[in-house]
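Annotated sample (chain length 335).
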Amino acid sequence: MAVRWGIVSAGLISSDFAAVLQALPRSEHQVVAVAARDLSRAKEFARKYDIPKAYGSYKELAEDPNVEVAYVGPQHPQHKDSVLLCLAAGKAVLCEKPMGVNAAEVREMVAEARSRGLFLMEAIWTRFFPAIEALKSAVSQGILGDLRVARAEFGKDLTSVLRAVNWSQAGGGLLDIGIYCIQFISMVFGGQKPEKILAVGRHYETGVDDTVTVLLQYPGGVHASFTCSITAQLTNTAFVSGTKGMAQIMNPCWCPTELVLKGEHKEFPLPPAPNKDFNFTNGIGMIYEARHVRECLRKGLKESPVIPLAESELMADILEEVRKAIGVTFPQDKH
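Output written by the structure step:
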């Protein structure tokens, strides 16, 4: 039976997700509604992606009985209210990353989903790419030996992207692209809590974080580091190294198609996407995440075994601790 999706927000990332769902078999995925805060935008989106219902408020979509799962795609300061609205209406939710601006927001969403017995997942699409699955498999099979160190970098000039530099919208590098770095490190070290976090950072003129480097010490003497930047181009790669060798995820590490495992290059081509235009690099790769959500829902799961809610909470804790260390606060932090 098809999963019936409702798309919350008609922005760029929602467009890519709708295009991906269109590319999947209709017997498995159907988009039944879209909502934007401007009805005309919702109607335009619905026309483009052949969606039967368009709403001018998120509340109307949440209350549509035909919607089974909501994809929440507005900017992250709007995630919490949108997610809580959908959960209150009994919907399963796939929420774009980062799930919240701070740890308190994430904990509130998680607690609500658990109390209502509803599925909730943070949309860290990277984890479902075949290149990442191959890396995880290599780590779990001990091919790299005992792990010692991991590192990730993600940086590009995002200063022309208004939301990236907007303080009131919790812009900056950490929440937007640093999340990709910390999720990689957390993934290879099994979702453990770091024992120590050190961070240095530069502030952008608007008050958001510009370039940040973080050092994390994990149990057992293993450690990791990452750098993210909205003003400097970085290698945009990630690696994990152990006593028997190294595995490296090549650029673009957040949506990769190439893994170098102990010196051997492995390619993982994306599925074809004929007649589809995407706003973001390798956008068709959201297909893996969409399939995973369907599997979870059909198995009756309340959270993803690949991105457990406890790990979403942990990553929010880490990002918040880093922000405190470098002196970046957002309006959403002032409770």
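Annotation: Residues 309-326 form the longest helix (18 residues).
Annotation: The chain has ten helices and 14 strands.
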